[in-house]
Amino acid sequence: MTTHEPPARAALAVFVLVACGFAACGRIPGQFEIVQNQQPSGGCAIDTSETLYRGDGTLDLQLVQAGGRSAYLMFPLVRNNLPASSGDGPDANQIQMHSFAVDIGPSEFGALPPNVAMLFDSLTKAQRDSADYALLHYSVPWSATLGSGGGSAATLVGAFPIDLARRVAATGDVGGARTSMIVNAHVRAFGSTDTQDLESDPFDFPIYVCSGCLVGNVLTCPYMSEPANTGNPCNVAQDNFVDCCSLNGALLCPPIVSGQ
């Protein structure tokens, strides 16, 4: 995960208008897009069906596990809308995708809790190449090949770093209600054809942040049978209710089941 500059929308718009007069643009709306955030199915299977999507997310800080890939995972469905190549030769409009850029910030649909707002402000003002700055503005590699004329791929990107979740939890400002806090994950994909570099249309995804709102039933360890709520198949800290068991005061989610 590396830092990057957050998109400066007004300045970028002026630059694109000027640049388009001299060369192929990096982003022409509709050519390369993130269609939606896919909904994982059993076993964390992600496919390209446009009927399986999630319009918002929920992150439970109480369930974030150290050593995981991310506190919250997104599964962007990316699509290449460049014209289909004609003939039997190589696909000149095929996109080789190479990375994502993620910017995490306040949502227009709700204010950050005061101490979290102070935390985000301090991280944004940190040095551009620092680990603190990279908690809110970062790039990550991803490889995919998208054929022209509508070729698509289901992908994965961490949309809320674990260390950021830890620092937000440490403020003590986030409560047990799902609506305690909401952030916006602004995601862009990057790739290239044989002749041009491409940036996708940006995709904004709302993530509600809470502490304990996804914890379902809590019993003493171990459970005698399989729990009713098994959690999200890709990341227990997000989106789905999960049952837990208590072991010496610590929650284990999903729970230990007798005989396993």
Count of extended strands:
15
Indicate the structural class: mainly beta
What percentage of amino acids are in beta strands?
A: 25-35%
Q: Helical region count?
A: 3
Oligomer: single chain
How many strands, what sense, and barrel or not for the largest sheet?
7 strands, mixed
The value of Rg in angstroms is 20 Å
**What is the chain-wise order of helices and strands?**
EHEEEEEHEEEHEEEEEE
General shape: globular
**Helix amount, in percent?**
10-25%
What is the count of structural domains?
2
**Distance, first to last CA:** 36 Å
Mean pLDDT: 91
In words, what does this structure look like?
The protein has 260 residues and is mainly beta. It has 2 domains: 2-208, no CATH class; 214-260, no CATH class. Helix content is 12%, strand content 34%. It has helices spanning 9-19, 114-124, 162-170, and strands spanning 2-3, 32-37, 57-60, 72-74, 76-80, 95-106, 137-146, 151-154, 157-160, 181-192, 197-199, 203-210, 215-220, 242-247, 250-252. Strands 1, 3, 6, 7, 10, 11 and 12 form a 7-stranded mixed beta sheet that branches. Strands 2-5-8 form a 3-stranded antiparallel beta sheet, with no helix packed on it. The model is unreliable at 9-24 (pLDDT under 50).
Helix/strand layout:
Elements: E1 2-3, H1 9-19, E2 32-37, E3 57-60, E4 72-74, E5 76-80, E6 95-106, H2 114-124, E7 137-146, E8 151-154, E9 157-160, H3 162-170, E10 181-192, E11 197-199, E12 203-210, E13 215-220, E14 242-247, E15 250-252
Parallel strand pairs: 3-12, 13-14
Antiparallel strand pairs: 1-7, 2-5, 4-9, 5-8, 6-7, 6-10, 10-11, 10-12, 14-15
